[in-house]
Amino acid sequence: MSTVTRSTALITGASSGIGAAYAERLAARGHDLILVARRGDRLEKLASELTGTHGIAVQTVAADLASADGLRQVADILTADASIDMLINNAGVARLGATADLDMEALDSMLAINITALTRLSRAALPGFIARNRGTIVNIGSVMAINASPITSAYGGSKAYVLLFTRGLQEELKETAVRVQAVLPAGVATEIYDGTIMPLDQIPADLVMDVDTMVDAALAGLDSGETITFPSVGDADLWTKYAAASDTLFAASQTGTPAPRYGV
Ligand SMILES: NC(=O)c1ccc[n+]([C@@H]2O[C@H](COP(=O)([O-])OP(=O)(O)OC[C@H]3O[C@@H](n4cnc5c(N)ncnc54)[C@H](OP(=O)(O)O)[C@@H]3O)[C@@H](O)[C@H]2O)c1
Predict the structure, then answer these.
(1) Is the CB of 142 under 6 A from ligand 1?
(2) In whole angstroms, what is the distance from residue 188 CA to residue 212 CA?
(3) pLDDT, tens digit, for every residue of 199-247?
(4) CA 130 centroid distance within chain
(5) Are 197 and 243 in contact (CB under 8 A)?
(6) What is the CA radius of gyration of the chain?
(7) Domains in the chain, please, with CATH?
């Protein structure tokens, strides 16, 4: 009888870009996979390639994570399948532009995918991970979480949520072996830019990372125990300083009195 514990990674948004690259890299590491996205044909194609190349088991789930039914379907899998010990919350969309110009439905669905789905799927996975004291959640954020710009207010806001949600989970899970990593990429060459007001060919090529390289860096960060990973930032101490400044500002708010400059 085999004593090897199978490990299954569930990856959202695995039909292209960063999610597909995670699928390939995790398959190469021997994980079985559950691949989620709307385009089931692409998932099937990737699944048969990965099964053939790496001899792993791959399940595909064609689900729309912006819909209540799709989200419930994937959440139920996370709750029921005890072999899942890795959740890659990667599915995301970028609706870019001035907020007053954004299509309301597109805005709603972006928030549903980038925020609600990531939160609900984490919520679905966590009880099992905690009970087994084993599991990793990788939340794909963005450097736009820390940058205000006139075309990314809602997208950047959704990614700021991912960063703070992840940091809060890390605090919740401190006493467990369950790990949560936030990955904050800058530009990565994927389809996410297609049809936006900022197509990839308008971004200087030297500012854009190859998708496999980005995922390799993010996994190296995870392997080294990093909890907040900026794949393209050379000086890791910059995050330490940023987090410390944020802690200092928060501590300074705990006074119970208005600041003297308000004169009240
Ligand atoms: N590329 C970058 O420069 C960059 C930088 C920072 C962060 N990110 C983040 O990286 C993540 C992956 O994006 P990407 O760059 O790899 O873009 P991508 O190639 O467009 O991939 C997005 C993935 O999300 C899935 N998805 C979108 N809407 C969905 C829905 N309603 N239900 C289920 N799945 C859905 C897509 O699959 P279907 O269309 O088949 O559903 C696709 O697999 C996102 O969270 C993005 O915000 C990207």
Answers:
(1) yes
(2) 9
(3) 999 999 999 999 999 999 999 999 999 999 999 999 999 999 999 999 9
(4) 20
(5) no
(6) 19
(7) 8-235 (3.40.50.720)
